[in-house]
Design brief:
Structural class: mainly beta
Distance between the termini: 27 Å
Number of strands: 12
Oligomer: single chain
Shape: globular
Strand order of the largest sheet: 1-4-10-9
Number of helices: 1
CATH topology: Beta-clip-like
Radius of gyration: 14 Å
Order of helices and strands: EEEEEHEEEEEEE
CATH architecture: Beta Complex
Largest sheet: 4 strands, antiparallel
Number of domains: 1
CATH class: Mainly Beta
CATH superfamily: SET domain
Length: 125
């Protein structure tokens, strides 16, 4: 774990989620079974970087703003990066790094999050 906000060094994705083609955008995450409200679906983790380091990165990359001038650089190969946006999402942040089911989710449903609730930078594919 990193010391700032106890950020995990790696992302975690529940086995209740899998990547497949999405009608929203490219690939997405989908429920492989029913997921009850409040169940953790993913934990975001990675290297903590500052604004200058973020601005110097070459795409593609994914990052999550966790505070003033602090970002988690997320492994671009990790499947958590396939979470798509919705203005009426079925996932939300329980805290800075933990994403849980906002409501009961049925098997086969695409897992979505509102990008506006946390600053996420995704550049490239």
């Amino acid at each position: 774990m990193n010391s700032i906000l106890r950020v995990p060094s790696e992302c975690w994705l529940s086995p209740a989620a899998a990547v497949r083609g999405s009608e929203i955008e490219g690939l997405g995450l989908f429920a492989t079974r029913d997921i009850p409200a409040g169940e953790p679906v993913m934990r975001l983790g990675g290297q903590i970087i500052d604004d200058a380091t973020l601005n110097a990165l070459t795409p593609p990359y994914s990052s999550l703003c966790i505070g003033d001038g602090a970002h988690i650089l997320i492994d671009p190969a990790h499947p958590v990066r396939y979470g798509n946006h919705s203005c009426d999402p079925n996932l939300w942040h329980q805290d800075a790094t933990t994403v849980v089911a906002r409501r009961a989710i049925t098997k086969g449903e695409e897992l979505t999050i509102d990008y506006a609730t946390h600053t996420i930078s995704q550049t490239g594919s």
